[in-house]
Design goal:
With about 180 residues, the protein is mostly helical. Helix content is about 50%, strand content about 10%. It contains 7 helices and 3 strands; from the N terminus they run H-H-E-H-E-E-H-H-H-H. Strand 2 and strand 3 form a beta hairpin. Helix 5 runs antiparallel to helix 6, helix 5 crosses helix 7 and helix 6 crosses helix 7. The chain is globular, with a radius of gyration of 17 Å.
């Protein structure tokens, strides 16, 4: 489920291009608990820089603060506040509004979950020891290539394993 205010054009582009797999916001916030200023994320790859340029072309701002939200049954949500402004202006905005943004994020997520009251969590899947070890390496920050090399599997298999067994993507904002 995704709930948000990004334009339909951007959401469709995001989905059709599979940007969830390269989005530094998604990837950077998966292992975080506290709000994350986009300036703290890794935008160094060519794909990430291209992704950000395209997002800005679709009307997103160059600045962002994303708040990871964890819930029952493995729920993972991400609430993002986004704006186009200078670094100094953005620092003032997040300094002044951080507490309010966190409160709003949790209230927004609660309301989003109420939209599907009958939806129950998917039953947990049993993982093989090899799957568990591979996913553990990925969660520790190993790249797919590093995890695949360590486990003696292909990078494709490692990516597929993460996709199949990874976190449930119930998000408060669609990417």
């Amino acid at each position: 489920m995704g709930v948000g205010t990004y334009s339909e054009l951007w959401v469709e582009r995001y989905k059709s291009q599979g940007y969830i797999n390269i989005d530094p916001v998604i990837l950077g916030c998966l292992q975080k608990f506290h709000p994350v200023n986009w300036k703290e994320l890794d935008w160094t790859s060519k794909a990430a820089r291209s992704f950000l340029r395209e997002a800005i072309d679709f009307g997103l701002g160059n600045q962002g603060l994303s708040i990871p939200i964890r819930g029952p049954h493995g729920q993972y949500a991400l609430f993002t506040v986004n704006h186009a402004c200078s670094d100094d202006e953005w620092e003032k905005i997040i300094q002044d509004g951080r507490r309010d943004f966190i409160l709003i994020a949790h209230m927004f997520n609660k309301k989003a979950l109420e939209l599907e009251p009958d939806k129950s969590a998917e039953p947990a899947q049993s993982l093989s020891p090899r799957e568990t070890e591979t996913l553990t390496l990925l969660s520790l920050g190993y790249s797919r290539a590093q995890a695949a090399n360590t486990m003696g599997i292909s990078e494709h298999t490692c990516a597929l394993m993460r996709k199949v067994h990874g976190t449930n993507w119930a998000q408060s904002t669609p990417f």
